[in-house]
Write a structure and sequence with these properties.
This protein is an alpha/beta fold. About 40% of the residues lie in helices and about 15% in strands. It has helices spanning about 25-30, 35-55, 65, 70-75, 100, 120-130, 150-160, 170-175, 185-190, and strands at about 15-20, 55-60, 85, 110-115, 135-140, 145, 165. The longest helix has 21 residues, at about 35-55.
């Protein structure tokens, strides 16, 4: 007799929220330029797909007085309703106002998490979200750390801890679910 294996969860459009953590100008300046370009492009792809599909987008800024605003190309792509939560805590889950922001959509219990820095704010936030009972997805190509070894280390920890690690394109196509979806061509064009 074989034991049933756990089913791999997929991102569901009606259950998802997109969370962009601390994708800020001065923090970005410390990142590897090639990897940063890829991560920013992937964050923008997910923001665009989320807007097309009616998925809420939440953003945070860590100590913006020191780290500056959200990267301009991301900021201009955000929905008008995505005013960033200001924070000084590394975990968004301990930042005032953050829980209220993700609770605005109580049926949306999946958080797709992108941004900076993978091994600090993202790691501590996904741990907190998991403790709160959220299903957490982290696109590996949508997060970054100053040191790529730190990112790889935290991705391994996330996998061991039950966080779903995937890629941005998987998120977009899981949100669609079917090529007959009315937004298929628009979302597909983001990932060409």
């Amino acid at each position: 007799m074989t034991t049933p294996q756990a089913q791999m969860p997929l991102c569901q459009r009606t259950l998802s929220q997109l969370l962009i953590i601390d994708a800020q100008e001065r923090l970005a300046a410390a990142m590897q330029p090639d990897e940063l370009t890829q991560v920013v492009n992937n964050i923008n792809r997910l923001v665009s797909a989320a807007k097309m599909l009616g998925i809420p987008v939440i953003a945070t800024q860590h100590y913006s007085k020191g780290l500056g605003p959200i990267i301009e190309s991301i900021h201009t792509n955000l929905p008008q309703t995505a005013d960033p939560t200001e924070k000084t805590a590394f975990s968004c889950c301990t930042a005032p106002g953050f829980e209220r922001n993700i609770s605005l959509h109580p049926a949306r219990r999946q958080l797709i998490v992108v941004g900076m820095e993978a091994h600090i704010c993202i790691a501590q936030t996904v741990s907190g979200l998991q403790r709160w009972g959220y299903q957490v997805f982290v696109p590996a190509d949508g997060i970054i750390s100053r040191n790529s070894a730190h990112k790889e280390n935290v991705l391994a920890r996330m996998r061991q801890g039950g966080i779903q690690v995937l890629c941005t394109e998987s998120v977009g196509f899981e949100w669609l679910g079917d090529s007959s979806d009315a937004q298929f061509r628009d979302v597909w064009s983001l990932f060409k």
